[in-house]
Fold each of these.
Amino acid sequence: MQRDIRNKYKRISKVQLKKLRRKRWRATFIFSIRVMLVMTVLMGCVPFFVFGKELAGSSASGPASEIIASPTETDPNQETEPIHTIPETKQETETASDKQEQLESAAPTEAPQDGEAKKQPSFIDPSKPMIAFTFDDGPYTKVDGRILNVLENHGGRATFFVVGSRVGDYKETLKRIYDSGSEIGNHTYSHKNLQKLDAGSIVSQVEATNDAVEAVIGQRPKLVRVPYGAYRGQVSDAVRYPMIQWNVDTRDWESKNKDAVLNSILSNAKDGNIILMHDLYPSTAEAFEEAIPLLIERGFQLVTVSELYASKGIPLEAGNVYFNVK
Ligand code: NI
């Protein structure tokens, strides 16, 4: 009997021992798994502690990543590449790659005058030929800087029809355009075909751009260039500004070829012409740099659109469309 009990206890204790060992082993196993999990989480977080938001931005994908990655203003040397490039007649993707921006040269400030340009021209001779160059889809420092250098070196001006959504990223460039006496026009806020929008949306596309420009230079543009030249339908009623078209299309966005653009400019240089170009392409700046000294030599005056019409004595009226002065 006694022996039986002892045996029984022995047997039980062996079973219990096994159970105990099994329990311990399981506890150790679970503990190590937990430790590994905690370590993994901590390791995963380290880069975020080190790199912060930048990492979150660069690792994201899709449209949101573009928003995170898109630079903000303030430093003109870090301005964005062109966001779109929707040329006047055909959709196209922007391929500008050179990120080197030109340094802004701040022009001396003067008290703003009423009107389209800060500095009024010293003198425009109505008896001499004049051309109004127009640049759409900017601002864009890299190209505008070169265009403005040429204009300033030759005492000329041009008209820059800016896209409202870009203005905040190119404040310094916008100021420089204005300070140099060139004219800033309105190319709508997000470069949509206005013929496809209702009247309310057209008004807000135009006014939001004027608001954006006014916030930077303190003046509202007086002229509108509708995207794609689409002024028909209800557009002329909804756009309460003169709509400026062109009669010479260099198709610079299409060729992106300096010689082609240069040839177009030189062969169409005629008194009263309005020439369409886009300040998004280095080839456009190159062509302009070569063309301007030649045009000056030929006796042309480089004027803004408002100056062109004022010099010819033609009033610019809201809702009307203008192509050139004959
Ligand atoms: Ni455009």
Note: Residues 2-51 form the longest helix (50 residues).
Amino acid sequence: MEASALGYFDHNATTPMRARARQVWLETAERHWHNPSGLYREAGAAKRLLEDCREAVADYFDVDDPERVVFTSGATEANNAVMRHLSLAVRGSLAISGIEHPSVAAAASTYFGNERLYPWSVDAPTGQVEVAALEEMVRRGGLGAVTIMAANNETGALQPWEAVADLCRQAGLPLHIDAAQWIGKCPPGRLAASAYLSGSAHKFGGGKGVGFLLLPPGDGAAFHAQVGGPQEQGRRAGTENLPAIAAMVEALQELESDRLTALAEGRAKERDAFEARVMETLDVRILARAGTRLWNTSLLVLPWGRNVKWLARLSQRGFAVSTGSACSAGKGNPSATMAAMGLDFEEMGRVLRVSGGPETRSEDWERLADALLEVAAEWRAEA
Ligand code: PLP
């Protein structure tokens, strides 16, 4: 069954594989199962396909040199690899905010050590990191590198990565951008102009366990995500998952910038109408609403009850939503993003994240609002 028909509102956790990507995955597994590192004809064909895929990723991000593209198992691996690399390559501290994904935050803390992390403040109403605070850190000195996510996975808050990239260029600081939530929802713009850039296929219909890292111009030789094999020019050892890479590239090529711009404009209105309707009846708070957000995301603080109970009742009605990021949900860990947004532990237990997809229609948002209000009425009746 199609994701929209299932009331699927958890696209920030993962997306269904696009039909063409699935087909390419199967075809590649059938035709090009040979090891691209082999020296016979069939291996050569697999290698050529791999290099075509590399060029396609470079083209998508308007990057001249395909050698800047390293295929990985996803954004977690790419983020870990960059944090490790930067911790060894620079001398100073890393500017990092409290809203980063755990795959950046935990890797930064592991490789840099907490004493080399420079906390970067977040403006709670917009959910955005404060560029002025970074300017101040640069003025004070001691910074070695900067990491920023392009869009937050929980609030959907779009981050000022362009202004940060300009600032880093002027200050000569290496920059890492985790674009896992941006790619597939917004046009790529100049994301890859100068930064280390992480992306994940399963966030844009390309299948799980595959992603990429774009290296900044001229930084290829020193970089090692993994050692132990010659693959990816020695920068990421391990036999390449060619069917997954080819499927990811197919999904990436379907993301035309015009369509994404139209999506962002049209769909944000449908999400906003959902929020307005829910807020008319229920005393909910919507996080990062004062800023610019991804068109698909709404992070609600519910007025009462545990989020897992709301989630279960919505699930019974055919809706899949989340209690926040899939990475921190259900584990009893306070979410760093929500703490940075000023929520206390009790409020975190009332958070519900809904995230639509390109196929989510306005009727689906309306049905979700109906279901949410129905659950609230049912709950009130029980009290
Ligand atoms: N970064 C962000 C912002 C994410 O939302 C996610 C996935 O939830 C990741 C990184 C990890 O991506 P992957 O599942 O490809 O390891």
Note: The mean pLDDT is 93.
